[in-house]
Amino acid sequence: MIFRQLFDHTSSTYTYLIAARTDGEALIIDPVLEHVNHYIKLLEELDLKLLKVIDTHIHADHISGNAELRNKTNCITIMGDKTEADVVSMKVSDNEIIKVDDLKLKAMHTPGHTSESFSFLLNDRIFTGDTLLIRGTGRTDFQNGSPSDSYESIFNNILKLPEKTLVYPAHDYKGQKVSTIKEEKKFNPRLQVKSKQEYIDIMNNLNLPNPKMMDVAVPLNSGLVKKT
Ligand SMILES: [Fe+2]
User: Quick check: pTM over 0.85?
Assistant: First the structure.
C-alpha cells in the first residue's frame, strides 16, 4: 500500500494520500487548497490516478482542496451524509464502504467536534478527523459541536476498535504523527474521566479562541459562497 501523511504548516492539518499500488487509483483525505498542485505532482510522480477525495468534516481552519482537485482531476468528492450543504459529489452514510482499487474504507459517523463529522476505517488504521486527536479531542464549541456526542463517538465507537488500530487525526499541533487506540485510552488526558459528565465539563471549560480562518473557511467549505 502507498501511504503518505502530508502536512500543512499554516493550519497544522494532516492530509493523507493512499493507494493500493503504483499505477492504480488513489484517495486523498482532508486536502488543503494551497497544496493542490503539490498533490497533483505527487500523484503524477507515483503514477496514480486520483479517484476519490474525502473531507472528514467542514473544516473551520483551512479551505478544503476538494473542489480544486475535482476541477483538475475529475475525482469524486465525498463527505458524510450529515453534511447539509451540497459541496461534494457523493455523500456516504454510517457503515458505508468506500472502494479504491482493493482498498475498502468504512465510513463511521462520529459527531461531536461537529454534528457532521465522520471517521474512516481502513484495515489497521482509522482516520479520525478532529473527533479524536493524539492526546486530545476536537473542540465542541461551534458548528453544532456537542461534548455529549463527542463522548459517545469516542468511548462507544472509536475506542471499541482493536487496541492496535492506528490513529491518524486531521491535525496535530505538537508534531505527533500517529497513535493507537491503546495509547489514547491510556494516555489521552481528556479520556481519563470517570463519567460522561466529567468529559462534558472538561469540554465546556476549554475557553478556546475561534480559529483565525473560521469566518472565511466555514462558508467556503460549506458551499455557502463560491471558492473562485
Ligand atoms: Fe475541524
Answer: yes
